[in-house]
Amino acid sequence: MAFTPRLDLKQSQNLVMTPQLQQAIKLLQLPNLELFDFVEKELEANPMLERENADSPEKGGDSNQDYRDTEAGNNEQETSTSVTNGALETAAVDMVDYADGDTLPGQDNAPLDTDYENLWSSNSLEEGREARSEPVESPITEAFSSWGSGGGSDFSTSDFNIEQTTAQEISLRDHLLNQLTMDVSNQENRLIGLHLIDMLNEAGYLSGDLEVISDTLDCPIKRVGGVLDQLRRFDPPGIFARDLADCLTLQLRDRNRLDPAMRALLANLDLLGKHDMKGLMKVCAVDEGDLIEMVAEIRALNPKPGLSFDHDVAQTITPDVLMRVNPKGGWTIELNSETLPRVLVNNTYYAKLSRNTQNKKEMDYIAECYNSANWLVKSLHQRATTILRVTTEIVRQQDGFFTHGIQHLKPLILQDIAEALDVHESTVSRVTANKYIATPRGNYELKYFFTTAISGVSGEEPHSAEAIRHRIKTLIDNEEPKELLSDDKIVEILKLEGVDIARRTVSKYRETMHISSSIQRRREKNTGL
Hints:
Arc Repressor Mutant, subunit A; 529 residues; 22 helices; 6-stranded mixed sheet
């Protein structure tokens, strides 16, 4: 065999990830709100795209699916799914359609309070009194004449700003700066106090080192400590603390309750966390009754005083899929049309531009925009159909959960849904990522319904891990104070219910739910802590 260079032809099949395919995969993984932002950028960049208005003709198709689940007794259950998307069929109603010229009031019948030019002024008062030949009281007239005719805070302008009438929540920093201005008169100390305020974390604890401020401002560290001692008396009590014990100490000092026994208790918070009553009574030199009162006082304190001022608005969950009970039986599943973008391809504009192109460069640009717009509309339709199919199959397989509760949640993996729909597991994973469904039992992430399986006893059906966690929590919540359930006892109860589970698994599930051991729970219930 000669080792010489030569040319060979080889035919093979490879999966090529085109830019369009990569973008389609990205769209499938995006939740509705992020998809809306993406489409908005495309609308700005592509002149061939336009928003679909409520009164514009609907284009595309619809996606209606039914599934029937035959259970014991040959009971059939039907679930219909309907999708609303830019490329799919929608039914939008504009509220303007319910009003016409016969029902709307005319200009002469318009209420006066809607006319912003119909404003009261002192001149109208004078003219009315002159018409009635009534004497004008000079004190009242002079008082009213100084008012303007508008809605500003000083009645001097006609501009009305509703934001001026709303209450504003003060932040922790502003609250401390107000106290710093009033209580600290020295300008240099105020500057030190400003740096100390900027070193606070969200909970109100001092997170930095005083030497940093000393080096930055070129002042003695003793002076920085003196300003800190003054700031530690600010409101709220416990601010500028170094740790939890220091924070509780400042609050108890403010209440004049910092006696030697309380100092000993604060120095041994680790024993309090372990509910070691005997050890605490020994180090504090108090009896059980006094210790319980001391612990109650500590529980009444605020361990994070800074959080009472900074108000962060919680981000609400916007469901991507809506689910409701079908009056005919089963469930109705549809995409959340309020958060889905609705776009169309402007064929009229494309035809007009195509006739007026001057050169090949313009024609190529128009064709590229047109193809990109068509691809986007098609991808949105495919995304909506895929999400609907996957969600419908999840609901079908987890029907027991929606009908009877969490104890009937079945073990489910991505492969089960992929095999049922004849798609790849990665497709199911992308569909269920960062997407939520609104159900009669609350809002759930689609990933929530995929749980591992716990085998059953003697070949019985496996159980969902989430259902087992719920059962363990229920058993512990209903246990008697004198008969606490150990992990071994919980294993015995679950085996009688047909669940083959190990003790270490019960312990792991209990710890993930932040439930203490039976020994710890016994201490808590015996001491009342």
